[in-house]
Amino acid sequence: EKVQIVAAKTLPLYTLERMKEYDVIASEKVQLTAINTLAVAIRHIHNPSEEMQLVAVRNNGRALKFIKNPSKEVQLAALRVR
C-alpha cells in the first residue's frame, strides 16, 4: 500500500488506470490520496463514497461532472468552490 500511495501522489490518473486494468483494488486511502492530488481522478473510482466525492469537489468543483448521481451536499460543495 505504501508504494501505491507514493504512486497515487505522483501520477494519480496513471496509477488508478493501471490498478483498474490489472484488477487491483485500490484501498480507500490510496483512492483518497489520488483524489487529493488530482480531483478529477475520481472518474477512475467505481462507486466513490460521499466522503471521496466531497474531497474531489472541494479540491476542484469541475470534478462534479465525473460523479454519477451526486447528493445535494456534494452539488452544493462544488458550487461553493467555483
TrEMBL record:
Protein's name according to its UniProt entry: DUF4116 domain-containing protein
